[in-house]
Amino acid sequence: MFAIYLVIGALSGTLAGMLGIGGGVIVVPALAFVFAHFNLMPASLVMQMAIGTSLAAMIVTLISALRAHSLRGNVRLDLVKMLLPGLIVGAILGALIAHKLPSYYLKIFFSLFLFFMSGRLLLAIQQEEVRKMPSRFSMMGVATGIGTLSSILGAGGGLLMIPFILRCRASMHQAAGTSVACGVGAGIVATLSFMFLGMSNVVIKDSTGYIYWPAFFGVALASMLFAPIGTAVAHKLPASVLRRVLGIFLLLVAIDMLLTH
Fold first, then answer.
1. Are 82 and 136 in contact (CB under 8 A)?
2. 72: three-class secondary structure by DSSP
3. What pLDDT is stored for residue 192 in this prediction?
4. Whole-angstrom distance, CA of residue 234 vs CA of residue 101
5. Which residues pair with 212 in a beta bridge?
6. In the Cβ-directed half-sphere of 164, how many Cα atoms lie within 13 Å?
7. Residue 207 pairs with which residues in a beta bridge?
8. How many CB atoms are located within 10 Å of the residue 240 CB?
9. Which candidate, 167, 182, 212, places its Cα nearest to that of 31?
């Protein structure tokens, strides 16, 4: 079983470094499948446990990717300072919502969101990247919304953060690096929220709240090792290629999630 978690972590780490998406788009559906297939926990808790565990593991992945992006000068600290407060507020709100929603609806929501993001990325490949800088108020509001959705999805924030950062006069590589930096801070808050909220109704061996530790250690270990590889690949690829890879990948994951209902 631990070997399965290592494979999931290797794939998510590579994507986290290459695309700045946190890897949750692999970890959440993969863990949900493993938890359900091997009957590791009640069906009513599968998605919450997958999301919470993904968020915890992604912190390790993102820290590894952040170091690599920082060395290449891809992190815009000015944007991190403006976006992080809203992301933190949203992370707490998202955890509260995920705690209340049934696991089935979380899975549907996850699938539909991936379809939406895939279509947006694939259709906007030639879109102008440098635009007028949003106001601080707008950035705070958008960051709160992104933090909320990211916490519900367990996806680290990059799915929504990258397109928005591109509107803030950042290049594709800067957007990936900055989204990783924001994901570290927001991810820590979201993970703690899932941990404490889950303690009220989760009694599963080797878990704390919505965090399942065997899966966490396997995913985190492999993702940490593979994230720098993804970052190195991203630095050599043009922005249009990164957009296409991310868009096509999200589409495939969304289809798989719907077919498993």
1. yes
2. coil
3. 95
4. 36
5. 207
6. 26
7. 212
8. 11
9. 212
